[in-house]
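pls design
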């Protein structure tokens, strides 16, 4: 009977978190959540209104050196829009960490100090590539913290 495999597939889709179940053809959005006052869904149109950057990025992989120029918004600018919640402490911004997660579950973590343009030498870019958002870390020698098809940014 064909009904059983269809129901099993539907049950699998129901178990996938909504941000991850979004088809690749859906409008590009990223959810910003956690310790932020103005989080929520950042659609591509909202990201396009932020200051745009065009940065060179190169990194090594097992297949050689890859790179090019990429356009997008700084991760820091997205975080600024989401308004991280500060707790009374010495250097309160440094208490936060940021986890950027792709549709496939791959994630990269950053300290706030790495992302703050006042404290980091290399900006971290959220670039539009092939209809998806890709996190690129220009200062990294490998592409280990590059996250493809970004769907969530969590501030802790």
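designed seq:
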């Amino acid at each position: 009977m064909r009904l059983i495999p269809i129901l099993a597939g539907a049950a699998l889709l129901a178990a996938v978190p909504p941000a991850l179940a979004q088809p690749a053809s859906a409008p590009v959005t990223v959810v910003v959540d956690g310790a932020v006052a103005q989080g929520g869904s950042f659609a591509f149109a909202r990201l396009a209104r932020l200051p745009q950057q065009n940065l060179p990025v190169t990194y090594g992989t097992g297949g050689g050196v890859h790179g090019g120029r990429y356009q997008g918004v700084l991760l820091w600018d997205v975080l600024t829009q989401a308004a991280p919640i500060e707790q009374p402490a010495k250097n309160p911004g440094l208490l936060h960490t940021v986890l950027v997660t792709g549709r496939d579950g791959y994630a990269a973590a950053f300290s706030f100090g790495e992302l703050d343009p006042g404290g980091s030498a290399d900006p971290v870019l959220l670039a539009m590539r092939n209809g998806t958002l890709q996190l690129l870390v220009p200062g990294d020698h490998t592409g280990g913290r590059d996250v493809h098809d970004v769907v969530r940014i969590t501030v802790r």
